[in-house]
Amino acid sequence: MRSIPRWNRMAPALIAAIIGLWAVPGGGVAQAPQGLGQEVAELLPQEVAGFTLQDVQPQDEGAAQAVYAADDGGEPMNAIIAYGQAAAGLHQQVQSQVGEDSGELEVDGKTFTSLQMGSDLIVFKHLDPIFLAAGYEVADPDADMGALESSAVAFLEGLDPAGLAEWTPSEEVAGGAESEAGDDGIERCQDPDCFSEYISRCESAEFGASLAPTLTVVYAVEGPGDGDGCQISFRFEDNPNPDLVDTPLYFTLDPDVGFTQELIQEVMEGCLDGDEAAVERFQCEGPLLEAM
């Protein structure tokens, strides 16, 4: 039984971002579960710029990974697509690998980040609310990265980044209960709007997002912060790296601003990157800063 190729030789933090988004063994397209993950998977076309869809595994949480076989018999292309909170979480994880040696590629008028890790290549961008990435797993250390980048650009253009960024889920999977109380009495929100309401009152509540089967994050309202702010915590409930589990990061938000993907992306990137202005603005602190 054949295993589906993965970016399994990349740096650990990047593996942590995608380890749960695997394609099932065997040929043909996997049976998709119902829900948001299936709808995301259905955004992937059967044929893209010299590649044909070989396997796809959707996730209920709003993400999917696909493997495209090269029509010329060359290396397969791996594609990851995610929506909403899953998109924001995956982007935060992959973005943590960006260093001075990263590059930029223009795809359909949008600038994607290009990372080379040994002989592996990944090209990605957060097209809020979509996260889109493509990559090769190349065994040859002398691989022509320039040619791979050109092929990745053609591949991503075929996926239509602009069209994907305008997609929204159907009403059937976009709804759901706003919140429910846990055994400890803490309200557990099912969507960001619910969590924003609790932040506006700075009342205790949690909001969790399962980005992959082994990658779950939880945000919680801790109470009043310095000044007029409200202190929020972030922690991994599940992570392939056990050192990061239940290791919190604390930051403070303006209760009137709301809990948006753009804001949380700014907070997480600024805090974890050690940006002094962001650390001061959001009052970032906690053991996750050192662990990351």
Describe the fold and architecture.
- The protein is α+β, with helices and mostly antiparallel strands and 292 residues long.
- It has two domains: 12-165, Protein Transport Mog1p, Chain A, CATH 3.40.1000; 176-291, no CATH class.
- It has helices spanning 12-18, 36-41, 85-95, 145-158, 161-165, 171-174, 192-201, 261-273, 276-282, 287-291, and strands at 47-48, 51-59, 63-70, 77-83, 103-107, 110-117, 120-127, 130-136, 179-181, 187-189, 205-212, 215-224, 230-238, 249-253.
Q: Strands of the biggest beta sheet: in what spatial order?
A: 1-2-3-4-8-7-6-5
Portion of residues in beta strands equals 25-35%
Q: From the 3D coordinates, which CATH architecture of the largest domain would you assign?
A: 3-Layer(aba) Sandwich
Largest sheet: 8 strands, antiparallel
Structural class: alpha+beta
Helix content: 25-40%
Contiguous runs where pLDDT drops below 50 for at least 5 residues: 1-33
The top level CATH class name of the largest domain: Alpha Beta
CATH topology of the largest domain: Protein Transport Mog1p, Chain A
Count every beta strand, where a strand is a DSSP E run of 2 or more residues: 14
Integer tally of domains: 2
* Distance between the ends: 37 Å
Q: What is the H/E order?
A: HHEEEEHEEEEHHHEEHEEEEHHH
Average of pLDDT: 76
User: How many helix segments?
Assistant: 10
CA gyration radius, whole angstroms: 19 Å
Q: What's the overall geometry?
A: globular
